[in-house]
Amino acid sequence: MTAVPRSSTDAPLVVVTCRDGDLGLARQLAKQLELPFLPDAPSQHALAGLELVLGPERLELRDAGRRIGPISADFLLADFARRRRLAGRRSEPLARAVGLGKGELPQVLDATAGLGRDSVLLAWLGCEVTAVERHPVVAALLQDGLRRAAAAPLPMPMVAARVHLVVGDARLVLAAGVEPRPDVVLLDPMFPRERRTALARRELQLLRRLVGDDEDAHELLARALQVARRRVVVKRHAQAPPLAGRRPDLRLAGASTRFDVYLRAPG
């Protein structure tokens, strides 16, 4: 795990523990991420902008000012469990976008994994997924979510085992060559600020403060188009223009989001 980029956040970031948190693990995490460690209760850290909080149940990213609720990578909560139950290869928009139901299950590289919901949903549907996340703190949140999923009742351990986390810049990962070569590359650049729903607003506000905007998404699309064997799928806000102005071959529209699909020639 690499150090947190210093220019990616507009506020100080520290690692803290809750009262029942594991002090040793929190110290180790702070050392890995090269972040300050404050072992006292999070409420005492008035000078911190963002807190990476290790509690007894999960790792969370919090706003020290308590203006925004905490976020975590949790694949066991009711809202995500409901989406898993309803997901089908023919009914789930993401599944249709990546081409599930048309032959063998594709190998997917999620180039902007973030908190991992799309990666885990595709793994739930049977895909092997390489989840690439370049920001070490976001990757730590995702790794924690996968760890808890692996310890949950079946079938979640099998689902978590299909997600292979890579901490790094997806542009470099794609340029270096990925084996096996992915059938599908999935891109989900940071949504515009006007995206709706309270959860999305909360996550976007905290994640944007942490990682900034995806200003290199155009370059990432170009890399993905060079590597993907079957298709590149770009998740966009329903009203957003195509990424890099490139017209997709297919477009699957929903109420608030859509998937732009770029088909690749066989070979």
- The value of Rg in angstroms is 18 Å
Q: Whole-Å distance between the termini?
A: 35 Å
Q: Major β-sheet, in short? A: 7 strands, mixed
Outline, from the CA principal axes?
Answer: globular
Strand order within the widest beta sheet:
7-6-5-8-9-11-10
In terms of quaternary structure, the protein is: single chain
CATH superfamily of the largest domain: Vaccinia Virus protein VP39
Look at the structure and give the CATH class of the largest domain.
Answer: Alpha Beta
Number of strands: 11
What structural class do the secondary elements suggest? alpha/beta
Helicity level, as a percent range? 25-40%
Low-pLDDT residue spans: 5-9
Question: How big a fraction of the residues is strand?
Answer: 15-25%
Order of helices and strands: EHEEEHHEHEHHEHEHHEEE
Account of the 3D structure:
This protein has 9 helices and 11 strands. The relative contact order is 0.13. It has helices spanning 23-33, 78-86, 93-98, 117-124, 136-150, 156-161, 170-176, 198-211, 217-227, and strands spanning 13-17, 37-38, 50-54, 59-63, 107-110, 128-133, 163-167, 184-187, 231-237, 250-253, 257-263. Mean pLDDT is 86; it is low at 5-9. It is globular and about 55 Å long. The chain has 2 domains: 6-63; 78-263, 3-Layer(aba) Sandwich (Rossmann fold), CATH 3.40.50.150. By secondary structure, the chain is an alpha/beta fold. 33% of the residues lie in helices and 20% in strands.
